Amino acid sequence: MNKRAERKIEHIQHALSTGQQRTNGFSDVTFVHQSLPNLSTSNIDLSTKVGELTLSSPLFINAMTGGGGEDTVIINEALSNAASEANIAVAVGSQMSAIKDNKERPSYEVMRKVNKNGVIFANLGSEATVDQANIAIDMIEANAIQIHLNVVQELVMPEGDRDFTDALIRIERIVKGVQVPVIVKEVGFGMNREVARQLMDIGVSAIDVGGFGGTNFSKIENKRRNQVLSYFDQWGITTAASIAEVSSIGNKVSIIGSGGIQSSLDLAKSIALGASAAGVAGYLLKIFIENGYDELVLEIKNMLEDLTFIMTALGARTINDLQNAPLVISGSTHHWLTERGIN
Ligand code: FNR
């Protein structure tokens, strides 16, 4: 196994063993109960828009692994099959390894092979050129491309990048040079409103906040090599605070909630805070690896059904109604938003 493949397998193992945290801020967010919702569960419409894309539901499987040989082929095939079966979107993991080495392509291509008509997102880092973005899109006939920002993860890796200059310029070139919507995402450290505004101004379609409180790449990288750059372990903006931050800049850019989402209630709260969709990564990977494919599909279907129950209880027929559902925000999320002048 090559070094990159080894790293990917280690990421999966440590993502599972460092556990999925529950510090994403959603426990500070409470819905205001509605006793007269005047709705039936059969009225609920889960369809949503992310930028120019229409999705049949707001839940999707977020970018995980790509490259790395047999194991990742099996994982990616299962994730994409499950997305197809449950009719949700799915993102591939970073495709840079396949751009650099053709032998790695099958582990990405399999996702389109088993999911011919579904919505699939391509994925690259902000070091990518326009040509590389177009190769990644064509490789899987992607409906959109995610560009990930992972500064802290790189810094924590001894072999990681150290130069983060001009990322915004490269992203702008990609926005102008590809034919599909561009989603810019974090990987678990959250996004603030100033960065969101910069991204909105260069025309990205959607911002995936990738908030703190779920998969923690600082802990994962530190664990991989028993090193202690522990100052990054608690670093980041929680998912709840991040969504509220980005939502405060207006609705010209779609918001995706992600980072530690493990239930329909987290998903519903993401939407009520301003997101149009929510991505789940580590939680679903863990279910697949520990319990298998059937449980993975069942969990996704249960999450969708639970979301219809929550929306019914709130009297929210559509995702747009849910975005306007009243909330009370308490605790450290309230404190954060007050300090940041967001209400
Ligand atoms: C990831 N994530 C990720 N993100 C990305 O943009 N490109 C990638 O290649 C990967 N690879 C990857 C591998 C593994 C094993 C995990 C668990 C995660 C990050 C992922 O998309 C997401 O942003 C974070 O994991 C936070 O969401 P969760 O896991 O808390 O739901």
From TrEMBL:
Alphabetical list of HAMAP family matching this protein: Idi_2
Cellular compartments per GO CC: cytoplasm
Species whose genome carries this gene: Metabacillus litoralis
Cited CDD domains: IDI-2_FMN (cd02811)
SMART domains listed in its UniProt record: IMPDH (SM01240)
Location of the protein in the cell: Cytoplasm
Gene3D superfamilies, sorted: Aldolase class I
Family indicated by similarity: Belongs to the IPP isomerase type 2 family.
Cofactor(s) listed in the protein's UniProt record: NADPH; FMN; Mg(2+)
GO biological process assignments: isoprenoid biosynthetic process
Residue intervals of the FMN-dependent dehydrogenase domain: 170-325
Catalytic activity entry: isopentenyl diphosphate = dimethylallyl diphosphate
Binding residues annotated for Mg(2+), in chain numbering: E154
Domain of life: Bacteria
Protein purpose: Involved in the biosynthesis of isoprenoids. Catalyzes the 1,3-allylic rearrangement of the homoallylic substrate isopentenyl (IPP) to its allylic isomer, dimethylallyl diphosphate (DMAPP).
Any one Pfam family match given in the protein's UniProt record, by short name: FMN_dh
Residues reported in the UniProt entry to bind FMN: A63, M64, T65, S94, N123, K185, T215, A281, G282
Binding locations of substrate: R7, K8, Q153
Assembly and binders: Homooctamer. Dimer of tetramers.
The protein's name in its UniProt record: Isopentenyl-diphosphate delta-isomerase
Enzyme Commission number(s): 5.3.3.2
Protein's gene: fni
